[in-house]
Design brief:
CATH architecture: 3-Layer(aba) Sandwich
CATH superfamily: NAD(P)-binding Rossmann-like Domain
Largest sheet: 7 strands, parallel
């Protein structure tokens, strides 16, 4: 066991925010970084691993479907077998969705449950498996939620439900771990320039193919990843991104109707409820 290494598991590490966090950790820590990269796309994971290795990091690729509890537990076991200890777990894997609830047919509602398994249960299972090791190292847990986990977004009932649940779980866990030396940081990105929304699900549970949100002024992946990693390093409780996100959280308490109007205004016209 090499305790000089800083060992981090990142789920959803094959592209987008997860891949960028891996690259930035490799740049920050160089040869002291041990990165365990997990996602379903093995080829994409290998490409990210090569980029991180070129920056000096040690890497381990573990193809993982976080909707499967056994694979989540195997991920942590392989990380421990390879590196011997664990300093951080970044729960980043997730899938988006854009569908008005009234347009979802009864026979298609199963994808709501599948989305919850990925966005919530994948994080729960990975965290449960990793927790004893993180308690031993007094490590860090990161949960990548969304502003849709702070304010309900129309057309995103499934996604908002999963992210609200995720935020609630990690808020409670943070309180439980207060005396254990393990920090829990929940990040709330807004609209980020990734493919998550076009790959997200439509009313029938198929890939939407396009985003239903207006993306003018969207945050770059690089900035989002930096903010999350800075928050993790400082052991912050929460990282709420964008002024609009912080304002929306406050206004929800005093003017919830206004927040609903703001949320509706963020939708493209063709996906707005009539």
């Amino acid at each position: 066991m090499n305790t000089a290494l800083n060992t981090t598991i990142i789920t959803g590490a094959s592209d987008g925010i997860g891949a960028e966090m891996a690259r930035q950790l490799a740049r920050r820590h160089g040869g002291q970084a041990a990165l365990v990269l997990a996602a379903r796309n093995t080829a994409a994971l290998e490409a990210v691993a090569q980029q991180c290795a070129a920056l000096g990091a040690q890497t381990l690729v573990v193809p993982t479907d976080v909707s499967d509890e056994g694979q989540c537990r195997a991920l942590v076991a392989q990380a421990m077998q390879r590196f011997g200890h664990l300093d951080a777990l970044i729960n980043n894997a997730g899938i988006s969705a854009q569908a008005l609830f009234s347009e979802v047919k009864a026979e298609d509602l199963g994808w709501y449950e599948n989305l919850m398994r990925i966005n919530l249960w994948g994080s729960v299972w990975c965290t449960h498996a990793a927790l004893p090791h993180l308690q031993a190292s007094r490590g860090r847990i990161v949960a990548v939620s969304s502003l849709a986990g702070l304010v309900g977004v129309p057309g995103r009932t499934a996604y908002s439900a999963s992210k609200f649940a995720m935020a609630g779980f990690f808020e409670a866990l943070r309180a439980e771990l207060r005396g254990a030396g393990v920090s829990v940081t929940t990040a709330y990105p807004g609209v980020v320039l990734t493919n998550i929304r076009s790959r997200g699900l439509n009313a029938s549970g198929q890939a939407a193919g396009s985003s239903g949100l207006k993306e003018d002024g969207a945050m770059t992946v690089e900035e989002c990843a930096r903010l999350i990693l800075d928050g993790m390093a400082r052991r912050e409780r929460e990282v709420v991104m964008t002024t609009k996100g912080k304002l929306g959280r406050f206004l929800k308490l005093i003017a919830p109707g206004l927040v609903e109007k703001i949320a509706l205004a963020a939708l493209k016209d063709h996906v707005k409820p009539q």
